[in-house]
Amino acid sequence: MRLKPIWLGVWLIIGLLLVMTFLDIRTLLRLASERPVDLPFVLRWGSRGSEDGQFDWANDLAVDGDGNVYLADGRNSRVQKFDSDGAFLTKWGTSGEGEGQFTQPTGVAFDAAGAVYVLDLGTARVQKFSPRGDFLSVFIEGRIHGFSNPGDLISNQEGNFYVVDSGMHRIQKFDRDGQYLTYWGQRGSGPGQFEFPSSAVVDGEGYIYVADKGNERVQKFDAQGHFMAQWRVRGEVAHVAIDSGGQLYVSGPSHNRIWIFSASGELQGVYQNDDAGGESMAWPTVMAGDGYGNLFVARSNNVDQVRIYRYKALMP
After folding, report:
1. What is the pLDDT of residues 211-250, one digit of tens each?
2. Three-class SS of residue 22?
3. Do 235 and 254 meet the contact criterion of CB atoms below 8 Å apart?
4. In whole angstroms, what is the distance from residue 172 CA to residue 181 CA?
5. What CA–CA distance (Å, rounded) separates 144 from 154?
6. What is the pLDDT of residue 278?
7. CA distances from 47 to 54, 67, 90 (A)
8. In this structure, what DSSP letter does residue 74 have?
9. Residue 36 or 179, more confident
10. What pLDDT, in 10s, does the model give residues 298-315?
11. Sheet containing 58-63: which strands, arranged edge to edge?
12. How far apart are CA 171 and CA 290, in angstroms?
C-alpha cells in the first residue's frame, strides 16, 4: 500500500523528532554520568581589597611565556602581575578613561614579543603595555567597531587578536596591528550563533573555543571562524581554559564546578569539591593554563572568597 504524500510528511516529522529526542537523551545521559575528578591543589593567594596582592572581582586570568600570572582586577580598575607562586610583581591602572586607565578591565592577552594587551569594558578599547605596565598605545578603539560589553581578549600564534563581543553575540578578529579583519556570530542557538558569549581560548593548533554562556555550551571554531563542533554542559558557562596537554576546562560558577573535556570533546569528569586550604569549590570565575602543567583558577563572589588557586592540571 502506498502512503499518501501527507502521511509521508507526518512520518518524516515523527522520524526527525525521534532522532532529536535520541540526541537529547544521549546528552542527558552523558551529563548524568559526570564522574568526579581530582585536581591536586598546590597553593593559593589573595583576598578582597585594594592593596597589592588583593583584588575585587577577577575578570580574567592570563599566563605569559615565563609563567607569570596577570589578573584583570575588575572593580579596582587595574591589572596585577604575579609570579607562578603568587608573589606580587607589579600593577598598573587607575579608574578613568585616559591613557593607561581602565573602567573595568575584562581581558588580557600577549604578543610574541611579550607586550601585554588589555581589554576594557567601559571604554570599549584595547590598550597595549610593556610587561612592566608602561603604556604604549591604544591598540583597538572598540567604539569604532561597535563593541558592546566586550568580555574577553585572546591572541593566537599568528599574532591575530580575537575580542569576545558579548553584547553583540559575536567574535571580532583583528590583525597584529589592530586592524579589523572579520567577525562571526549572531544571536541564536544554532551552530556558530551565540547567546552572550563570555570568554574564549585558543589551543596549540589554532582552534578557538568560545564559552557560549546563555546556550550552556562551548563551541569550537577554526582560526577563520568556521564552526567545528560543540559540547554542552549543565548550567551557564563562564570561562574556558586549555592546559599544556590540550584539555579544555569549563567553569560553571553558579554550579560551583569545572567540567574537563579531552581535546576530542569527550567529557573527562567534573571537579567540584576540594581541600584547598579547607575550602570547597565556590564560584570558580576565570581560569588560565600555562605551559608547565598548572591550572590557575580565580574565585570571586560577593562575600569574601576572592582568591587565586593553583592546581596541577589533569594530564591525559
Report:
1. 999 999 999 999 999 999 999 998 889 999 999 889 999 9
2. helix
3. yes
4. 8
5. 19
6. 54
7. 5, 21, 17
8. G
9. 179
10. 987 655 567 899 999 876
11. 58-63, 69-73, 78-82, 88-92
12. 24
**pLDDT at position 277:** 54
Mean of all residue pLDDT scores within the chain: 88
What does the alpha-carbon distance between residue 92 and residue 107 come to, in Å, rounded to a whole number?
14
| Cβ(68)–Cβ(293) below 8 Å | no
The amino acid occupying position 136 is L
Contacts of 9 (CB under 8 A, 6+ apart): none
Q: Nearest-CA neighbor of 82 among 298, 305, 299?
A: 298
What are the grid coordinates assigned to 93, written together?
591602572
Position 311, amino acid = Y
What is the Cα–Cα distance from 216 to 232, expressed in whole angstroms? 6
Does residue 311 contact residue 297 with C-beta atoms inside 8 Å?
Answer: yes
DSSP secondary structure, 138-189, as one string: EEEEGGGGT--SEEEEEE-TTS-EEEEEGGGTEEEEE-TTS-EEEEE--BSS
Supply the pLDDT for residue 37.
Answer: 87
Cα separation, 179 vs 300, whole angstroms? 34
* 67 pLDDT tier (thresholds 50, 70, 90): very high
* 8 Å CB contact between 223 and 310: no
> Which residues, 6 or more positions from 169, have their beta carbon under 8 angstroms from its beta carbon?
185, 186, 187, 188, 193, 194, 195, 196, 197
Average pLDDT of the residues in 2-31: 51
**pTM of the shown model:** 0.88
Give me the count of residues in the chain.
316
